[in-house]
Design goal:
Layout: E1 4-10, H1 17-20, H2 22-34, E2 36-45, E3 52-57, E4 60-67, H3 69-88, H4 99-116, E5 125-129, H5 136-142, E6 148-152, H6 160-163, H7 169-176, E7 181-184, H8 187-201, E8 204-206, E9 209-212, E10 215-221, H9 228-237, H10 239-252, E11 256-261, H11 270-283, E12 291-296, H12 305-325, E13 333-336, H13 342-350, E14 354-357, H14 366-373, E15 382-386, E16 399-401, H15 406-417, H16 421-437, H17 440-462
Helix pairs in contact: 3-4, 4-5, 9-13, 10-13, 11-12, 11-15
């Protein structure tokens, strides 16, 4: 069995992967099982050239490299988070169309590739993750790497018309053809990629084989899952989850709780969600005093102007709603800007009759899956899910809503409040069965099987005998 090399912007926690989540657990398990290397940015900016730092962590190695302050500004803050992130989430209005950022992005991808290349073995399997490293595979190939290299995109892939607005989009897509396998969250993301290749780049598609720029690769949808059984057990049995559940139930005093958990990000539809809750209280007075909406939204990228403005908007909306509808013994909206441990979140999910997950655009959304996994099968809550979240394709039993339609979301909340126990249990069981079937281990194993078994056969078939 070949060694597995994981490449991601940040190296995940190895010694306490379970605390970070199912994705870290799945990758660390694979690395430990076969011996492996996890490589990425150290998280530090250092203007002195320190090279790659390698440390042993049991059966696997961790390799990290620093960035200079200029590299961090252009690659991470610039192209990754001011160009790719908003554009891939269809926010052209927030995209910084600056070619300087792309040059910095390409240089950092080349820097990381040159750091990894001397550490590689001939039979390594390399799995690169997310939008920070779209150009990484091509840089490795330019150095002579011939190993199997796969890439998985954790965020949405935009339509051809949206992608074409980005300077250097052609170079980015060309670079993706250095990989042997491309993985997308949903079939819709895959379709948009193939549509771009055919319409904009003159390539062609045959099944899951995509040919362009003189090379044929495998492109498929590999929807990411969670550690379903592990999260369900944690919600039901862990001391921290039980403590948080009991604390929430005591505080609710017989009222129902609706929960949302999101990073503070403009893609998550939080202002629209607050407005839908206000519409609920206005249209359905019976909800007043009976429903508490808990929104947890840890601050992210607080140095970016768009995020600061959104935080101010949410604080204003929450103050307005509580001032307009609140009573001395009932606060309608509890808005919290700090992160909670996963075990505590599991208890809060279990204590919530409604999960409100309504991003404007999301690659998958694992919170929706964790909310379902945390429920009590004998008295489960109801998931309301945006039709623009990738998870909706795997979770059709959720109540699907258009997050831009404030009234539709308000009506869905009211429907969830009065849904019968029988229907709630039916929806939950169907959702849970799907989560068990397509869990994070299935996602990992499916991608690696394609990369290690199908891709080599495909490459060999292309070579003349």
């Amino acid at each position: 069995m070949s060694r597995l090399v994981i490449v991601s912007n940040r190296v995940g926690p190895v010694r306490d992967a379970a605390r970070a989540g199912g994705l870290a657990v799945a990758l660390v398990d694979a690395l430990r099982a076969r011996g492996g290397l996890w490589y990425g940015w150290s998280g530090d900016t250092n203007n002195q050239s320190a090279g790659v730092k390698v440390e042993q962590a049991g059966a696997l190695q961790l390799a990290t490299a620093d960035l200079t302050e200029d590299e961090y500004d252009d690659y991470y803050n610039g192209f990754a988070n001011r160009c790719l992130w908003p554009l891939f989430h269809y926010r052209i209005d927030l995209t910084a169309f600056d070619r300087r950022y792309y040059e910095g992005y390409r240089r950092v991808n080349a820097k990381f590739a040159s750091g990894l290349f001397p550490l590689l073995r001939e039979d390594d399997t390399i799995w690169v993750h997310d939008y920070h490293f779209l150009a990484f595979g091509n840089e490795l190939r330019q150095m002579g790497a011939e190993q199997a290299i796969g890439f998985f995109l954790h965020i949405p892939f935009p339509s051809p018309e949206v992608l074409a607005t980005l300077p250097n989009h052609d170079a980015l897509v060309r670079g993706l053809f250095a990989y042997d396998v491309l993985g997308f969250q949903t079939s819709r993301d895959l379709e948009r990629f193939c549509d771009f290749v055919v319409r904009e780049a003159g390539g062609h598609v045959e099944g899951d084989r995509v040919t362009c720029f003189g090379r044929t690769i495998i492109a498929r949808a590999f929807p990411i899952g969670i550690d379903t059984d592990g999260f369900a057990k944690m919600a039901a049995d862990s001391e921290d989850a039980r403590r948080q559940y009991e604390k929430a139930v005591r505080g609710l005093r017989g009222r129902a709780q609706m929960i949302g958990v999101d990073r503070l990000d403009y893609t998550k539809g939080l202002p629209e969600r607050f407005q839908a809750f206000e519409r609920l209280l206005d249209d359905y007075p019976d909800a007043r005093g009976e429903l508490v909406y808990l929104q947890i939204a840890p601050t992210s990228r607080g140095d970016v102007q768009a995020y600061r403005e959104m935080r101010q908007e949410l604080e204003g909306l929450s103050g307005h709603i509580n001032g307009q509808y609140g009573e001395f013994d009932w606060t309608p909206l509890r808005y919290i800007n700090r992160a909670f441990a996963r075990r505590s979140l599991a208890g809060l999910y279990r204590a919530s009759k409604i999960g409100l997950i309504t991003p404007l655009r999301d690659g998958m959304n694992l919170v929706a899956k964790e909310y379902v996994a945390a429920q009590n099968p004998e008295n489960p809550g109801v998931l309301i899910l945006s039709r623009f979240a990738g998870a909706i394709y795997q979770m059709p039993e959720a109540i699907a809503v258009n997050p831009y339609d404030i009234k539709e979301v308000a009506d869905a909340i009211q429907n969830a409040r009065y849904m019968s126990l029988e229907e709630r249990k039916e929806r939950f069981q169907a959702l849970f069965d799907g989560l068990q079937r397509d869990d994070v281990a299935y996602w990992r194993d499916s991608f690696l099987a394609t990369l290690e078994h199908e891709a080599p056969m495909h490459r060999n078939a292309e070579r003349p005998s």
